[in-house]
Amino acid sequence: MKKLNPKGLKVLKTLHLIFAMIWTCGAIAMVLITFLTDAESADELYMKNIILLAIDNWLIITGAMTSLAIGIIYGIFTNWGFFKHRWIIVKWIITVVEILFGTFAYHPWLTENLDIIGRLGEAAVWNEDYLFNLKMMEISGFFQAGLLLFLIVISVFKPWKSKKNNDKN
What is the pLDDT of residues 69-95, one digit of tens each? Predict the structure, then answer.
């Protein structure tokens, strides 16, 4: 398969960095909003969760899916490949796990909490389902943001020698 020329590789790298930053900054913003803001009314609680949902929909999902797509392009059209280096394999595993977890756990917890707040108003803060979802969002949001920062670190330092002892990249 034909590989990207140096200019194409720079464009791809730039796009990858931009969308990885969008994803990571979105995750950090969600953690900060979750931990550093207190809602004093049902309307404020609802708006806090609407803001989290907007960040999830527009920054997290856009950044994650575009980063995944660019990663696939990297694997096909550059010499990096998909499984040539252990650090790339780790990035793939973490990326896919993060996307699946966000899709099937975090996002449903968030949307369910919005529904609970809409039904119960301020009384939502005593609802067992709401409290469970909130705790899971706090723990997992912090963990996911940390994993995204870890992905940045391994992308820069490229640890672990190549699977095939071929570290030319």
Answer: 999 999 999 999 999 999 999 999 999
The burial of 83, by beta-carbon neighbours within 10 Å (0-12 exposed, 13-18 middle, 19 or more buried), is given as exposed
- Spatial CB neighbours of 36, under 8 Å, sequence gap ≥ 6: none
The model's pTM is 0.91
Query: Alpha-carbon Rg of the chain, whole angstroms?
Result: 19
CA distances 30 to 40, 50, 137, Å, are 19, 11, 10
Find the largest Cα–Cα distance for the chain: 60
Cβ pair 70, 26 in contact under 8 A? no
* DSSP classification of residue 158: -
What is the rounded CA–CA span in Å between residue 33 and residue 101? 20
Q: CA-CA distance, 79 to 33, in Å (whole number)?
A: 40
Judging by beta carbons within 10 Å of its beta carbon (0-12, 13-18, 19+), is residue 35 exposed, middle or buried? Answer: exposed
User: What confidence score (pLDDT) does residue 146 get?
Assistant: 98
Q: What is the DSSP letter of 164?
A: T
Q: How far apart are CA 34 and CA 48, in angstroms?
A: 8
> What is the per-residue pLDDT across 12-57, written as a single tens digit (0 to 9) for each?
999 999 999 999 999 999 999 999 999 989 999 999 999 999 999 9
